[in-house]
Amino acid sequence: MDLGYINGKFVQLDERVIPIEERGHQFGDGVYEVIQCYNGQPFMLEEHLQRLLESCEAIKLPISETLEDFRTLILTGIEKAELQYGKVYLQVTRGIAVRNHPFPDVPVSISMTLKDTEPLAEGYRVNGVHAITHDDERWAKCYIKSLNLLPNILAKQEAQEAGCFEAILVRNGFISEGTSSNIYMVKDGAVITTPLSNHILAGITRMAVIQAAEELNIPFVERYFSPKELLEADEVFMTSTLVEVLPIVKIDGTVIDKGVPGEITKKLYMQYQELKKKALV
Ligand SMILES: Cc1ncc(COP(=O)(O)O)c(C=O)c1O
Question: Would you tell me which of 126, 171, 177, 216 could form a disulfide with 200, CB atoms 3.0–4.6 Å apart?
Fold first, then answer.
């Protein structure tokens, strides 16, 4: 059952609960997390909540809730919604106040949606997906999981209109990340991904993939790489909480290697499944 939550109250998803003068709505003045739930259990919850607290701090949101409070809220929501396989979005905004740019002296708003979801279509995993490259037109604080997603949305829409699954963003001649994913290439047996900086989100799945590579003894390198290198890679893949580890087989119309999901990508996907099995009892 899909369920919503806003400031202390569980609600139906279609209930009208956000006042017009709410800063998430008016300014995108807030941060969020998305957590995937498997068999009724949220995967890597601690890591997501830790990043949420860091995002709150980065935009100076004065939250009194602790990681433990957020964990209790999410677990309560999952139980109430009887969520088995589904996603949880948690948003924290600077609250409800008369529209004015400076911070208001009001409590933050905490909201959440819990939704049953279908697993990603098997065809995407088996055949891989296509992508475009796109200028990274975002601001300089992409390490914050901000509600402001306009450049991501515009680039994703272009990808979709080109019949592609993702837009891979390029800043100063180098790959930063996807609109809602981290990006990797495989060259000569090593996995290469963009180093963490202000310009990308520190993906939780990225963290898990680093662990998976370590467990499989696959060399993992964090360095910058260009779109040209990407097109000449042996394999390309993307990661996120919702798509896990997903092969990319064509970029800007150029086929990557043989145009099929690569062996290292497949191994990392399988190892990610093992990590899930271990974490979820
Ligand atoms: C811009 C961006 N980069 C990377 C990611 C992947 O992060 P995670 O693995 O934590 O889902 C996301 C996820 O939504 C994202 O929006």
Answer: 177
